[in-house]
């Protein structure tokens, strides 16, 4: 099966024909993929003998993947859904409020922006320490910081809204 995957605005074509390998943009990778928790949010991936752990959560059709201290926004469509969306001229530009949420429990190390600041998709908004790692949480889209709900030193829970990005 072929999938079109967008990771932070960069597209990848992923083909899955066997349980132990994938092809990404024509390059073959050996994989071993395991869900570490019952809810499937904590993942282990061995990719060409390199071990990675990640936390994943789906929100409105977009996966938020936290690995190696970086947060990635990922969408996945099979090739038929992708072609249909392209034929319809569907646009990826988002409007409306977008929440920056904590992907896991932790401690706020720093709030990089202030209310009223203009941000571009991918700009750092909050730095969260969790599992002894600092994680940079980034703006999910272009806009203005409408509300900040935390400050440095605050403890937060998984899914807690930390900031809200609104239309300019």
Strand coverage percent: over 45%
Helix content: under 10%
Radius of gyration: 17 Å
Shape, per Cα inertia axes: globular
Based on the coordinates given, report the CATH architecture of the largest domain: 2-Layer Sandwich
Number of strands: 16
Low-confidence stretches: none
Number of domains: 2
CATH topology of the largest domain: Glycoprotein, Type 4 Pilin
DSSP summary: helix tally: 1
What does this structure look like?
With 168 residues, the chain is mainly beta. The chain folds into two domains: 2-88, Glycoprotein, Type 4 Pilin; 98-166, OB fold (Dihydrolipoamide Acetyltransferase, E2P) (Beta Barrel), CATH 2.40.50. It is 6% helix and 58% strand. It has one helix and 16 strands. It has an eight-stranded antiparallel barrel with strand order 1-2-3-4-5-6-7-8. The protein has a four-stranded antiparallel beta sheet with strand order 9-16-14-11, with no helix packed on it. The protein has a four-stranded antiparallel beta sheet with strand order 13-12-10-15, with no helix packed on it. A hairpin with a 2-residue loop joins strand 2 (10-18) and strand 3. The longest helix has 10 residues, at 79-88.
């Amino acid at each position: 099966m072929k999938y079109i995957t967008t990771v932070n605005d960069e597209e990848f074509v992923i083909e899955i024909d066997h349980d132990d390998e994938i092809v990404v943009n024509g390059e073959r990778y050996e994989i071993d993929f395991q869900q570490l928790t019952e809810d499937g949010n904590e993942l282990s991936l061995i990719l060409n003998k390199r071990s990675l752990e990640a936390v994943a959560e789906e929100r409105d059709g977009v996966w938020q993947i936290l690995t190696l201290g970086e947060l990635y926004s990922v969408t996945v469509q099979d090739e038929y859904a992708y072609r249909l969306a392209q034929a319809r001229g569907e646009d990826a530009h988002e409007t409306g409020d977008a929440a920056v949420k904590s992907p896991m429990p932790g401690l706020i190390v720093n709030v990089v922006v202030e209310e009223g600041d203009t941000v571009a998709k991918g700009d750092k908004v909050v730095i969260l320490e969790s599992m002894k790692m600092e994680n940079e949480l980034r703006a999910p889209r272009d806009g203005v910081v409408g509300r900040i709900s935390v400050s440095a030193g605050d403890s937060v829970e998984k899914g807690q809204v930390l900031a809200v990005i609104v239309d300019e």
